[in-house]
Amino acid sequence: MSIQSLSVIIILLLHEFESAAVSQSPDFQKFPGYMRPFIAQEFVRKTAYRLSKPLIGDDGRIYTCFERNLFAFESNGSIAWVIPLNYTCNMEIAPVCDDKGKMYLIAENRVLKIKLQNIGNSESAAEVFFGPESTMGGSDEIVGLSISMLSSSIFINIKNRGLFAYLLHGQLLWSAGPVLYRFGYRQGCKRSVTDCYFTSGPVIDQCEASIYISNSEGEIYSLSLFNPHFKWIQDFSAFDKQLVITPGNNGRVYVTIPVRALVFALDASTGNILWQNGVGPLSTAECSPVVDSNGWISIGSLDGFLYSYSPTGVLKKFPKETSLDSVIQVSPLLDCSGYAVYFSQVEMDGKISRIIGEYTYVSAMKPINAVFTMLVPAIGAIYWKGNYPGQLSSLLLGSDLHHFALDERILLAFVAATSEIYSFLICDFL
Length: 430
Description:
Structural class: mainly beta
Distance between the termini: 40 Å
Largest sheet: 5 strands, antiparallel
CATH architecture: 7 Propeller
Number of strands: 34
Signal peptide: 1-23
Protein name: Protein GAMETE EXPRESSED 3
InterPro entries: GEX3-like, PQQ_b-propeller_rpt, Quinoprotein_ADH-like_sf, WD40/YVTN_repeat-like_dom_sf
CATH superfamily: YVTN repeat-like/Quinoprotein amine dehydrogenase
Keywords: Signal
Shape: globular
Strand content: 35-45%
């Protein structure tokens, strides 16, 4: 039986490169594929200054939170500015931006709007866009949000309440729950209406003018940006209920089932399955792929390979050869050209993979080094490589980043932001 067909449990305990391990113990009950990412550097105090999931802005800056503060970093690791928010940021959901200089982020049970043009002057830069203090109300857990400039709207999924579409000036456009009754028939929550709710963040497909979202029963919905009617519903409950949705913006939408290590390509207009293929074991339920401008979908695996599939399902694995002790733990990132992806491989000391029943167990003692790579999957060309420890060490030690405990996804974001020169080479070549 191949690894690709197996359910995956990953128990990967990682220590940092240069200091003692964080004392917190992992909660293995959250997801069978739980792992803790490596820490490149730990701040000397007991409470590590851990940064949230970052956003790479169009201006080349990296935006990320620490507790109740929003930081903007230059690509060289220096702090451009920091503003207080009064609320604690969500660590696992990155901010989003519109094209008018506004940023939106989740903090506690609120959506905050950051007016970037007000930073540095006397006007307030942060305000509550959605929450108990706003005219729109709201007090429940916010699962995710996204923005569409096509409809000038922000979409907010509130646990147990539904999906809400607001115009960017604050007016409610529409709302939708996971069940819709039309012509006497029920759509959505096929097995049970009880305790059925939307569980994923809303995902925007700009080319199809669609929103994709999944529910707690393992169903995926396609909705219009402009109204709450369901275009189609596809049921994946036979595989698992935890799904990761990735828009192709090329007539396809991709669904990853982490616990099964499977990737599906769906027709974006009908929801019909075009192809399905396996990948190596994945690290967490949040490990998501990216789709580049050539239509290739790429995702990293704990077997050390980056799996890239063409729009028709043809597989390429990168690198062609990899160390048995290597793992890829975090989602790859697109570079600003849209054609290349960045990914990171970590070489582990004492990595062991075992197949027991229907599960793959991966364990390791500690990381030795990390290799960051920029490549174009469609042509298999590698444009850049960097190492930590190595030439990337100065990014940590010689900048404001040395004040923070940096995990792999933060490092990868800075690597992507600091390598823009290679993007110009790719644009000229392609």
